[in-house]
Structure formats: C-alpha cells, structure tokens
Amino acid sequence: MEKNWVLTIDNAEKIIDRLKKNDKSALDELFGYYYPRLYQFSRSILKIENEIDDILQEVFVKIWLNRQKISNALTFNAYIFTITRNEVLNLIRANLRDQTFKDNLFLRSVAEEYQTHDLVEYDEVKAGIDRIVACLPQRRHQIFVLSRTEGLSNKEIAQKLNISEKTVEDHITHAIKQIKGALKDVEILLFLYFFLFL
C-alpha cells in the first residue's frame, strides 16, 4: 500500500476485518500507517527516542493478540493511541527509580532555565502529587487512580463501577483541574504532573 494512503472508515473496516480473520498483511498495513504517528505521539511524551521502537513493537503485538476484541473501525484509532499511551506510561513508571532515566527525561523535557537539580526533587514532587490525589473526594479519587495508575479506559471504569462514561469523564476532568489548581504556583511541578499522569 502507498506510503501516504489515507485511512478512511471504509478501508479501515476492511483492514480490521482482515486482521480479525488472521491476515497478518492487515497488521503490516496498520503498522505502515500508524507507526510514524505513534512514534511522534510517544516522543511527545517520552522525549527519549531510543525506547520508542520497543514500545511500538509491544503495541502491535498487543493489537495482534487482541485482534478479536477490536470492536470497529470507528473506535480503533482511539484504541491504538490508548494502548500506546499506556505502554509509554508503563515504561516511565518502571524507570522512576532510575536516576539516569529521570535525568535524561528531565533534560529533554524542561527548558534550560529550569534544568537545576536543586529546583526539583522527583520523589518529593511525586509524594506531593500523591497527597493531592489522596485528598480528592472518594469517588473522584477512585476513578482517577483507575484511570491514571491502573490505565483503565473510561469505558472499563464505567463498567467496573456501574456508572456512565460521561460521569467518569466528568470526575477525571474535575480531578485534573483540582490538581492543576494545587500546582498553579510552581510551573515545573505542572510539567512533572503531566509527566507522571497523562
């Protein structure tokens, strides 16, 4: 398939149908279309490029292994980007104890005027954010943790808690506003909040 082909709902449905019928060439086509987009998306979060290929390989392995669970072409785009985001965040969380990893991420993500190690102690910042999250109203806290820590989708949270997806979205939106409000006076902490949670 041509490099610059456009993924329409019509051809996406055909590709996903082939994928669900165990056609590996369909996965190759999705890879060709999504790889550059997912690469830029991952890079915008992670900043460290040498980890991205491994992340995307895992994403497409998951797409293949879970191909029968793909509902339709309309939701596939959000589905693959959610998987990618979760894989990136899993990598970040797995490396939070690695000072070299944190330093590299910090240096690539923050403007030079903020690159002073005296300015930020990662563990203290994380503990501060945890305290803010812990102070959220009980239901909001529960939903936020399920979303940002356990990586569940809004739909999965809604099903788990027997509430609507709109309710889940509202709680997450309000939780983010509360956390941003608590951090509004310290710009560098806002960066770390997004780094840890989004």
Q: How far is the N terminus from the C terminus? A: 34 Å
How many helices in DSSP terms?
10
CATH class of the largest domain: Mainly Alpha
CATH fold label of the largest domain: Arc Repressor Mutant, subunit A
Largest sheet descriptor: none
- How does CATH name the architecture of the largest domain? Orthogonal Bundle
Helical amount among residues, as a percent range? Answer: over 70%
Q: How would you describe the shape?
A: globular
User: CATH homologous superfamily of the largest domain?
Assistant: Winged helix-like DNA-binding domain superfamily/Winged helix DNA-binding domain
Give the total of beta strands: 0
- How many domains, in number, for the residues? 2
List low-confidence stretches: 109-122, 185-191, 193-198
**Mean pLDDT, rounded to whole units?**
76
Radius of gyration: 19 Å
Strand content: under 5%
User: Helix/strand-derived class?
Assistant: mainly alpha
Strand/helix succession: HHHHHHHHHH
Describe the structure.
- The chain is mostly helical and 198 residues long.
- The longest helix is centred in the N-terminal third of the chain and has 23 residues.
- The protein folds into two domains: 86 residues, RNA polymerase sigma factor, region 2, helix turn helix motif (Rna Polymerase Sigma Factor, Chain: A, Orthogonal Bundle), CATH 1.10.1740; 99 residues, Winged helix-like DNA-binding domain superfamily/Winged helix DNA-binding domain (Arc Repressor Mutant, subunit A), CATH 1.10.10.
- The chain is globular and about 50 Å long.
- The C terminus is likely disordered.
- Helices cover 73% and strands 0% of the residues.
